[in-house]
Please model this.
Amino acid sequence: MSITQEFELIGMQKASEAVAYTLKEMTKYAQPGMTTKELDNYGARILSDFGANSAPYLTYGFPGWNCISINNEFCHGIPSDKRILKEGDLVNIDVSAELNGFWADNGGSFVLGEDINQHQILVDASKLILKKAIDNIKGGVQISDIGYLIENEAKKRGFKVIKNLGGHGVGRSLHEHPDELLNYKNRFDQRRFKKNSVVAIETFISTTSTYADTLNDGWTMIGNKGGYMAQHEHTIVVTDGKPIILTELNGIWN
Model:
């Protein structure tokens, strides 16, 4: 969407606060021995307290309130009472919701407890790359140049990007134009970021894979060459200068 009136900005700020606070609290709440369903239920209660509704459920009929992916699961993991969190797990939580007709999206990967499996270097790379990407977005910047920046920064750190996942416009629905804000330079993409547009910018930084494949459950995605992936995401408003980071409350850069 494009912000044209003050009530739209206020609506996006409130929806973004709901998803950002939920993501932050879910990240703090997660602990070894807990099931991903317990973690999802906790997030559901927080969103409900805001009066917000699960965006993946409303949009796609997703079987949960939030996507929770563990270790080799790249994204869209289904919360389960059979999946138990363990020390050192690489956890990704993606929280998106609708509140009073406005939609916001954010996500983050983190290491649960002690980094016994050496995932923190991947997580840190994803965080830093997202920050650098967002710092370079303003009206008129070519979308594919940000994709190039993300891929180049990943390569410098010895990582790859997932080429069939990307950011997207958001605001009046979960996925809007501009869609496919990819993590690499698509030389055929001549689009540019527009001032006042609302977009979800997200990294998909991986150890070995370059594409994500969907499992038989119809939701969970894993790498085509295995390995691990870290994702971090903010909903922002594009301006003539530094973007407005609507989901800054989530604290993924802390």
User: Anything to note?
Assistant: The radius of gyration is 17 Å. The chain has five helices and 15 strands. The mean pLDDT is 97.
